[in-house]
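Below is how a single chain appears once it has passed through the pipeline. First comes the sequence as given, then the structure the pipeline wrote out for it. We keep one example in the README because the format questions we get most often are answered faster by looking than by reading.
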Amino acid sequence: MTTRRPKVRRSGETVQYAALPYRLEDGLQVLLLTSRETGRWVLPKGWPMSGKGPASAAEQEALEEAGVDGKIGKRPIGTFHYPKRLADGVVVICEVHVYPLAVERQHARWREQGQRTRRWFTPADAADAVQEPELAALLQALDLDELERPPKPRARAASQA
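Resulting structure:
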């Protein structure tokens, strides 16, 4: 994966895509991992990827950063914002679109294993662990029905007779 300077919107924001890995084990649990730079609890997330849609990019980040894979939702369940310091020292505001990931496999080894710690939390404990207020609110309001709801069907154009 190539790291490059993200495109900045007119609003001054950039877009990232995140996975919200979850499982049902003694109730709903979500997986957080530590960031490489600060050790904060975060979701696996990253920049848009050439040739991948938003959900697929989020799914790829979950595999690389947290070592989990499963069934990714096709629509985001929410967004949050946070300041990101780029390699050149510039700080940009990232708008992160969050896609639910029903974890089917947790790998013993993964790409960023030596750089991060991963841990399962209840949604309430995850909300307390993260630093971004909008992400905390999203975690606090998690609803299993919303996570597992299939995507809304597209409206079909009426056929002409």
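The two ends are 49 Å apart (CA to CA).

See the next section for the split statistics.
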